Every structure is written in structure tokens, then in C-alpha cells.
Amino acid sequence: MKTVFSNQELFHIYASGTQSHGRSANGNVYFEGGVLYSYGKHFPIAMEYGDKYLFTCDSYSVTTSKHVSQARSALRHRDCIELPALRVVQELIWIKKRAKQGGKYYKQDLPKQAAAYCKGMAREIQNAQDKLKRARSEWMKKYWQGQIELHEFAARFVWQDIAGRKSDPIAGAIKQDKKERKARLIEAIEIDLDQFTRGAKFAKAREYALEIAKMRRNLLRNEHDRKDLEYIAIRVRAACESRISDLRRKRVAINANNREFFTKAMQSNLEAAYNNAELAIERYINPIYAVACAEVKRFQDMTRKEKEARFHAREIHAIGGRDIICRVHKESVETSGGARVPLEHAIRLFKFAEHCRNDGKGYEGGLKIGAYNLNKIEPSGNVTIGCHYITWDAIADCAARYMPELLQKELA
């Protein structure tokens, strides 16, 4: 029996119902046990259900959408029921079969899993109803009304046909969903009220303030960073913002999903608790944060000339813009763009650029300078390395400031 077909033929073989299994030549589409899959068992396209076919109305990717379209065309003469989340429906049908075989666990699990599916459909219906209210064009109104009807039908089919229940699945799912959301909200409120006490927030804010002060002291003592005041201010500002965010982090968010469960007492208790975090921030974190922000702004407001002077004095770590300048620190050369290369490599680059400048010939190649590739040296001595474009004037200025002996050799 032939079991390998072209993609197009495979869908017709499946629709004919004459074979139990088969696959496409590339293996992207296959069917077995009455179920047609696209790329794997995570995405069933269609499945046999008695004398009918259950068909997915979901999408996954461009090629899977193409498979779905081809399968729909091949099954157009069959009685098909379109359902969202067909993978879940497939699992429910499997549970139903096990329950019929006498599995006690499966008999108990089937209504629970069906209720969970109906709850998901109820959420989709509520979402579609909200979209329908805001829809302006007739086309969009028709689309969202169709989505409401689709999910209502899916919930009824699963609850009544698969789970064998007779009650209204949507009303029950909405009621259960409301009950669970209210329970989650009350739990979250209790956690927030417990965490946002005055004592807890003040102790945490004091601990954070000490951590930030210690970090600043360590940076000032660090041999590499101690003079880079802008970098230290940026680090302190970022640390303050992170700690402020952490102190304000809460589990309860008042929104359209839970507003109906809020009482005035709940809201006033939460507002009082959240205010404790603001008081703790104001007392311990904001003074440090304000100083750091002012320091960063002071550096940002400097003129280009002032920034260059501060850069050479190692009080700022970088200067914005494409005009790159360089400085030497110990055994490294640092650029105003934030890059760093070994001093030995930088001297080699200086000599190479000087050679190109003297000969009036450029260079293009992949010479390694530190961790970066040298892209180009122009006949004028200007260098392109990585994302940096460094003029000969900037290179010569760095040499004059930090290594005058190199220029003396050039002049000699």
C-alpha cells in the first residue's frame, strides 16, 4: 500500500478515508489514527469524529495556513465542524474514550477539562463582545459577531456533545471564571497588604540605600572607575531606578477585569499600603536619586569643548557624536565612543596610519586591533575601525598628549 504522496494528493487521500495513515514526501504533513497533522502532533488540522470531521480554525504559520487551506478544499464535500483549539478538543475526545473504557480518573477529569475549555471560550466571547462594541465598519461588526457565535458553538459542542452535560456552558464558565478571578484578587490583596506595611518598606528602602551608597564608594575606590564621575553617576541613577521599581512592585492591578470585585474598603486599604512605599522612597532613595540625576544632567549640559576636557581628565567615560577622540589609560587606549584597545595595538595602528599618510596610499584589510577589525586607512591617515571613524588629527592629538615621543620620531 502506498503511503507517501505529494502534499496536494495527501489531503485528498485523507478526505477519501481509504487509508489509516500516510505522509507527504517531505514529511511536513501526515495523518494517522484519523487525524491530519501539520508539522507535528502539536497542530492537528482535522480529525474524524463519527461520520463528521472536526476542523481547526486556528493558524500557526504561513505554511501551516497553506496546509489548512488545502485540507479545507479537500474536505469541502464532507460534513465539517470548525472549532478553535482543536488540539485541546482532541485531548478531550481521548479522555472521553478512556472514560468509556471504565477509567474512574478519566470520568472525573473529563468535566473538569471540558469546563476549562469552556472557560477559555467564555473569555474569547467577552473579548469579542468588547471589540464588537467598539467596531465601526459593518465588516468588523460582522467579523466579531461571527467570532462570538463560533466560540459559543464550540463551548456548547464540547460541554454537551463531548462531556455529556446539559447545562448552559457559557453561563457556567463565566460564573466559575468570576469566582476564580475574585479568589485570585483577594489572595493578591492579602499579599500586598502584608508586604506593603510601613515597617517592611522602610526597612527595605534603608537596606537599598545602604547598598547603593556602598556601590558608589566601591566605584570611587576602583582604580579604573574612580575618576569617571559621569559613569559613577549613571550607575547610581540606574541602581536607584531599579530599587524604586522594586519597592513599588505590587501584585494587584485595578483594571477592567477585576474592578467589579473591588469595594471602597479594599481600595482605601491598598492605597494606604502603597503609600508606605512612596514614603520609604521619598525618605531613603529619592535624595540619592536626585543627586545622581543632577550630576548626570550636569555632564549632559556641558559644551563639546568642556566634555573633551573632562574626557581627558577621565571624569566622563564617553562623548556622543561621530567625532571620536582618544585617551590613554595605563596599558589601554580608550575612545570617546566607549571602545578600548591595548596600547601596544594602538601604537601599531598609529605607525601604520602614519606610514599610509607619508606614502599617500590607503589600506583596506582585516588587520586585528584589539578585539576589532581594521576596515580602512585613508591616504590622509583617517582610520575606520569597527563603527569608529577616527581622523588623523584626533590620532595625532592623542599621541601629542600621551605619547609625544611618537610625534618626535615622526618629525625627526
Biggest sheet overview: 7 strands, mixed
What percent strand?
A: 5-15%
Percent in helix: 55-70%
| First-residue to last-residue Cα separation | 90 Å
- What is the general shape? flat
User: Please, what is the average pLDDT?
Assistant: 88
Distinct helical segment count: 13
Output the radius of gyration.
Answer: 35 Å
| Number of structurally distinct domains | 4
Q: How many β strands by DSSP? A: 15
Poorly predicted ranges: none
Q: Structural class, judged by helices and strands?
A: alpha+beta
List the secondary-structure elements in sequence, H or E: EHEEEEEHEHHHHHHHHEEEHEEEEEHH
How are the strands of the largest sheet arranged? 1-2-3-4-5-6-7
What can you tell me about this protein's structure?
The radius of gyration is 35 Å and the shape is flat. It has 13 helices and 15 strands. The strands form three sheets. It has a seven-stranded mixed beta sheet, sandwiched between helices. By secondary structure, the chain is α+β, with helices and mostly antiparallel strands. The mean pLDDT is 88. A hairpin with a 4-residue loop joins β2 and β3. The chain has four domains: 4-83, no CATH class; 90-167; 193-300; 323-411, no CATH class.
In short:
The protein has 412 residues and is α+β, with helices and mostly antiparallel strands.
Explain the layout of strands and helices.
Layout: E1 4-5, H1 7-16, E2 21-24, E3 29-32, E4 35-38, E5 44-49, E6 52-56, H2 62-74, E7 80-83, H3 86-100, H4 104-134, H5 138-162, H6 169-195, H7 198-221, H8 229-248, H9 264-300, H10 304-312, E8 326-329, E9 332-335, E10 340-342, H11 343-359, E11 363-364, E12 368-369, E13 372-377, E14 383-385, E15 388-390, H12 392-402, H13 404-411
Parallel strand pairs: 1-2, 6-7
Antiparallel strand pairs: 2-3, 3-4, 4-5, 5-6, 8-9, 9-10, 11-13, 12-13, 13-14, 14-15
Helix pairs in contact: 1-2, 3-4, 4-5, 4-6, 7-8, 7-9, 8-9, 12-13
